From TrEMBL:
The lineage of its organism: Bacteria, Pseudomonadati, Pseudomonadota, Alphaproteobacteria, Rhodobacterales. It is found in: Endomembrane system; Membrane. It comes from the Bacteria. This is Glycosyltransferase family 29 (Sialyltransferase). InterPro entries: Glyco_trans_29 (IPR001675), GT29-like_sf (IPR038578). It is a single-pass membrane protein. Keywords: Glycoprotein, Glycosyltransferase, Membrane, Transferase, Transmembrane, Transmembrane helix. Coiled coil: none annotated.
Length: 204
């Protein structure tokens, strides 16, 4: 696809041409088979800990949006996959330096050409987004979408860091829970159910 074709498809919300730029969800999840995965959320409380080396020791480290990393001691240094629901300034992209980008947002008009043509690019299906939204009764966070998807893979272990469902707010913004379109109680219940039923998933 040319850049012009991409811009036309994005503007007119033509999903099929955009999806053609993406690896399949099966191929994405197959890459995780048998691996340990660290999913790093953006809760402020994570900055108070010492989990950095532990995070970086995983086979795959996945971070979210602007991936704040106030210190290597608390957050680690590596980012293998970056999951986005917002546009990313070039300086931030260079700082994070992910090897693969996942576009999780249903808002396709925010998707940029550089992201869509990044090697290994993944576009999260709208049906998955809508299904989880219906289950939660609210727009799901990027973290919730990732956990829901990763739990369906054959990974060996999924460690969740920086997920307190907005109890300590977010390192990536100053908004309070009532200022964002998410239901953190519903998301906590969803993740709690997965923790209880799937021993591979650990909340740190």
């Amino acid at each position: 696809m040319t850049r012009l074709g991409f811009l036309i498809s994005r503007t007119l919300r033509r999903e099929a041409p955009l999806a053609a730029l993406s690896v399949s969800q099966k191929a994405l999840l197959d890459d995780l088979a048998g691996k340990t995965v660290a999913l790093v959320g953006n809760a402020r409380a994570l900055a108070e800990g010492q989990a950095g080396a532990e995070i970086d020791a995983h086979d795959v480290v996945i971070r979210i949006n602007r991936a704040p990393m106030p210190s290597a001691q608390s957050h680690g240094k590596r980012t293998d996959w970056l999951a986005l629901a917002t546009s990313l300034p070039e300086a931030e992209r260079a700082r994070i330096a992910p090897s693969r980008i996942l576009w999780m947002s249903h808002k396709r008009k925010r998707l940029d050409w550089k992201t869509a043509t990044n090697p290994g690019f993944y576009l999260h299906p709208l049906n998955d987004y809508e299904g989880l939204k219906a289950k939660l009764g609210a727009q799901p966070t990027t973290g919730a979408m990732l956990i829901d998807m990763l739990a369906r893979s054959d990974l060996a272990r999924l460690d969740l860091y920086g997920f307190d469902f907005f109890a300590s707010l977010s390192l990536s913004g100053r908004r309070s829970a009532d200022k964002v379109p998410h239901d953190f109680v519903a998301e906590a219940e969803m993740v709690g159910g997965l923790l209880a039923s799937d021993p591979r998933i650990i909340r740190n």
